[in-house]
Design a protein that fits this description.
- By secondary structure, this protein is an alpha+beta fold.
- It folds into two domains: 66-220, Immunoglobulin-like; 232-375, Cytochrome Bc1 Complex, Chain D, domain 2, CATH 1.10.760.
- Helix content is 28%, strand content 16%.
- It has helices at 2-7, 27-55, 70-73, 209-220, 232-239, 255-264, 314-326, 328-331, 349-358, 365-375; strands at residues 90-96, 101-105, 110-113, 115-119, 123-130, 135-138, 145-148, 154-159, 184-189, 201-207, 296-297, 302-303.
- The protein has a five-stranded mixed beta sheet with strand order 3-2-1-5-8. A five-stranded mixed beta sheet has the order 4-10-9-6-7.
- It is elongated and about 110 Å long.
């Protein structure tokens, strides 16, 4: 092109020269270029189509496939597994909400939110679902992104190699080059999904087989009521009796007990959240069974880790709980806990606070601190 531009550039006096004879080009060259282009596209299509098919199928012909089947490692690591799942890879159902995540392990019978664990060196299948708008599931340092589309059953598979396993602590420390070497990975929604899209984060923890099984057993464990016998039904009946009875003050001696009473009573948290083993079984909001063992709240936005990123800082975590439950709209604009969409729940936090004011039973500053103290017990 450079030669043609220079060789055939316009020179002084060229404007007086007659136009050269016009033609339609060289048919041989034109046909040859078109044929060559088609041939190149066919050649490029072969690896492209192979890669497309690979993304739409589990890697059953790879050497890491059979070791990834649950029957090959889960029981050996100390877990219990239904026989029906032994010839399957670990499967996680991801559900995109506005604006947070549900992670369900159907083979293992557990559900968590905004933070999930996977074993290193194992193929994991993710079923991607949305019941509201389009989201996109993305863990940049481990895998590509795939959309969650309402009415469509999308899926992907992921493998975090053994070099990404946690060796102790969380350690997402200040050096970017180091923060992905110790098992804690950051993900986010990569498809604009509404007002709080930028705050729809999540975290992935890559661990050894044994640590994964230990986490599953911990997640399965039910949380006891903050009472001597741990019985939720007796506790709730004692602290939130009918209108003709008074609360049992002996059950409200600690901030944690008073916070639990609020959770199941005037604060109405039970309308939206689940605590396994208790009467709280709603699914409009995240499962809170072990929320105090997570490294962040508010879908990964409020970090609970200390400044070194090594462990959960209880002071920071307590402040995060307090700040989130008192001012959720300041941290995640448009979130549905504060102001739910019409018909999605029976009322948002804003309405619940106003209702208590109208009934001359306002939720006080101390009440919020008590509720945060109760959430700290959910480990």
């Amino acid at each position: 092109m450079a030669y043609a531009v220079w060789k055939f550039r316009e020179r002084p006096g060229d404007e007086n020269k007659p136009m050269p004879a016009q033609g339609h080009g060289n048919p041989l060259i034109e046909i040859g270029l078109i044929t060559a282009s088609i041939a190149l596209l066919v050649i490029i299509a072969v690896p492209t189509l192979k890669a497309i098919f690979l993304t739409d199928a589990l890697p059953t012909n790879q050497p890491y496939w059979k070791p990834s089947l649950l029957g090959s490692w889960y029981k050996q690591a100390g877990g219990t597994l239904p026989d029906l799942a032994k010839d399957e890879p670990l499967t996680i159902t991801v559900r995109g909400k506005q604006w947070w995540w549900i992670f369900e392990y159907p083979q293992l019978g557990i559900v968590t939110a905004n933070e999930f664990y996977i074993p290193a060196g194992k193929v994991v299948k993710f079923d991607l679902r949305s019941d509201n708008v389009i989201h996109s599931f993305w863990v940049p340092k481990i895998a590509g992104k795939v959309d969650l589309i309402p009415g469509r059953a999308n899926w992907m598979w992921m493998l975090a190699d053994d070099g990404k396993v946690a060796t102790g602590g969380y350690d997402h420390g200040p050096v970017a080059a180091d923060q992905y070497e110790n098992g804690l990975y950051y993900g986010q929604c990569a498809q604009y999904c509404g007002e709080a899209h930028a705050f729809m984060l999540f975290r992935t923890r890559v661990v050894s087989d044994q640590d994964f099984v230990a986490w599953v057993e911990h997640t399965k464990a039910k949380v006891a009521a903050p009472a001597a016998d741990g019985n939720w039904f007796k506790f709730i009946s004692a602290v939130n009796p009918d209108e003709d009875s008074k609360p049992d003050q002996s059950m409200l001696a600690t901030p944690e007990q008073r916070g639990a009473a609020l959770f199941f009573g005037r604060a109405s948290c039970i309308q939206c959240h689940t605590i396994d083993g208790s009467p709280a079984t709603a699914t409009a909001g995240p499962n809170l069974t072990h929320v105090a063992s997570r490294t962040a709240i508010a879908a990964g936005f409020l970090d609970n880790l200390d400044n070194d990123g090594k462990a959960i800082d209880p002071v920071r975590q307590l402040n995060n709980f307090y700040n989130w439950i008192t001012h959720p709209n300041d941290y995640k604009p448009g979130n549905l806990m504060w102001n739910p969409l019409q018909g999605t729940t029976t009322g948002g936090l804003r309405d619940i606070v106003q209702k208590n004011i109208n009934e001359k039973k306002p939720i006080t500053e101390q009440d919020w601190h008590d509720l945060a103290a109760f959430l700290m017990t959910l480990k």
